[in-house]
Amino acid sequence: MRSLQRRAIRVGYALYILYALYAIAGAVGQKMGATLPFTLGDIGEFCLFFAATVLFVAGLIKEDTEAQSFGWLDALNENAERYAMLVFYVFICMVIVQEVLRRFVLNYSSAWAQETAQYAFIYLGYVGAAFAVKERAHIRFDILLQRLPARMHGWVYLFAELCTLVFALIATYWCLHTVQQLWEFGGTTPVLRVNKIWAEAALPIGFSLMIVRCLQMMWRDVADLRAGRPAYVGKSMFEE
Fold this sequence. Notes:
The protein is mainly α. Helix 2 crosses helix 4. The longest helix has 33 residues. The protein is elongated, with a radius of gyration of 22 Å. About 2% of the residues have low confidence.
């Protein structure tokens, strides 16, 4: 596994270097009034950069002991959102850095960077919302819980997850309605000129993941209540 990770990092670095050389060649060609023998275009540059990011992040991800013991499906169930968030976060950071360098060093900016960074940030937010549901890391007020006996905490969490599930189901329905309209009538993004479905899909994907995580949390709450175990508290923003 470590050899595959090293290869992924090397390929990711190679793609980053290839992209940098292409950008430098384009900047030099623009100053000299020459044209490159071939051009990737906005979509090609984005695909090259995104592929480099995915491979780079894949090389950084290490299997933990649970993944090695129980298999890749359990590892994916445990870390799917975290892996996706890492890809989007690294992509946003790298896009911003390369765009600053292209604008102020090469004077040869890209048209696709700002648009793709915005969409990646949207995906990051909605996938992160599903991860927060899984970890019970959303902002919450625990005044009621502090006044209730510990045996009632599981029921309160279960009710909260049920409300979240209902909200996610309603949101998913209307998000899919919007996606269906884009599929039927079209509509493209301003720069890449691809269907806006690729951007709007962040909402149904995020809410669908929230539904899955809500069901898993409700299953755990019911199991804890039956076994008499304390409810899973999750993570809090401010530790006392």
